């Protein structure tokens, strides 16, 4: 008998460690602002999430994509993003696009377990769900990457895409570098800003 909680999940689930996303966005925004010698716009989260799913293979249609953000006291807001408050603006909301419905749920670790433990627990629940056919994973690999890699290597009968900063020590068929995605997003804003000035 499975003692894990049974949660209704979408066919595609994107599990994101908000602290890692904040780290990457801050790093990339700082790099491009230094390079261009000007500040960049805030990131429209609906565009960023759409890019992530497109690069993970989502195509136009009636898809249901569920985003699960794991956060702690330090990462309760997504930096340089609109909307940004995980508790007040990005929990229990959704938007429609040509690619389907994108819904958002934010899960705090504060007062219960560490952010790492909560992420790994949710990863296990998503992996065990019969509802889920595609998993997109954005974890803080510099903090707990080996545990995530071990868990992902055990998953069967699901498409698994992991966005990362660097290639894993032992690459699996599920990996795509996350830096490509964030650079693409930041580059979009750089191009738009440069285009506006010409």
Task: Characterize the structure shown.
This protein is α/β, with parallel strands linked by helices. It is built from five helices and nine strands, in the order E-H-E-H-E-E-E-E-H-E-H-E-E-H. The strands form two sheets. Strands 5-6-3-1-7-8-9 form a seven-stranded mixed β-sheet, with helices on both faces. The longest helix has 20 residues, at 178-197. The termini are far apart. Residues 179-198 have low confidence and may be disordered.
Any chance you could write out the topology, listing elements then pairs?
Blueprint: E1 12-17, H1 18-36, E2 43-44, H2 45-55, E3 63-71, E4 81-82, E5 93-97, E6 100-108, H3 115-128, E7 134-138, H4 141-153, E8 159-164, E9 175-177, H5 178-197
Parallel strand pairs: 1-3, 1-7, 2-4, 3-6, 7-8, 8-9
Antiparallel strand pairs: 5-6
Helix pairs in contact: 1-5, 2-5, 3-4
Task: Write a concise synopsis of the structure shown.
The protein is of the alpha/beta class and 198 residues long. 39% of the residues lie in helices and 24% in strands. Helix 1 packs parallel to helix 5 (178-197), helix 2 (45-55) crosses helix 5 and helix 3 (115-128) runs parallel beside helix 4 (141-153).
> What is the residue-mean pLDDT, rounded to a whole number?
84
Question: What best-fitting shape do the alpha-carbon axes yield?
Answer: globular
DSSP helical segment count: 5
Strand runs, count: 9
Most strands sheet: 7 strands, mixed
Structural class: alpha/beta
Which strand-content bin applies to the residues? 15-25%
Which consecutive residue ranges, at least 5 long each, have pLDDT under 50? 179-198
Query: What level of helicity do the residues show?
Result: 25-40%
């Amino acid at each position: 008998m499975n003692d894990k909680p049974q949660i209704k999940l979408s066919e595609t689930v994107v599990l994101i460690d908000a602290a890692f996303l904040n780290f990457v966005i801050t790093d990339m925004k700082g790099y491009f602002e230094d390079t261009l010698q000007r500040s960049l716009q805030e990131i429209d989260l609906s565009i960023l999430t759409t890019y992530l799913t497109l690069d993970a293979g989502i195509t136009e249609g009636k898809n249901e994509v569920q985003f699960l953000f794991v956060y702690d006291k330090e990462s309760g807001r997504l930096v340089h993003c609109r909307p940004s408050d995980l508790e007040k603006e990005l929990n229990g909301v959704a938007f429609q696009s040509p690619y389907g419905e994108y819904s958002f749920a934010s899960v705090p670790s504060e007062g219960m377990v560490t952010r790492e433990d909560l992420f790994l627990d949710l990863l296990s629940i998503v992996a065990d769900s019969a509802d889920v056919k595609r998993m997109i994973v954005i974890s803080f690999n510099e903090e707990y990457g080996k545990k995530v890699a071990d868990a992902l290597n055990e998953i069967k009968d699901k498409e698994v895409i992991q966005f990362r900063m660097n290639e894993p020590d032992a690459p699996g068929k599920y990996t795509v570098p996350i830096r490509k995605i964030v650079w693409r997003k930041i580059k979009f804003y750089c191009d738009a800003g440069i285009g506006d000035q010409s």
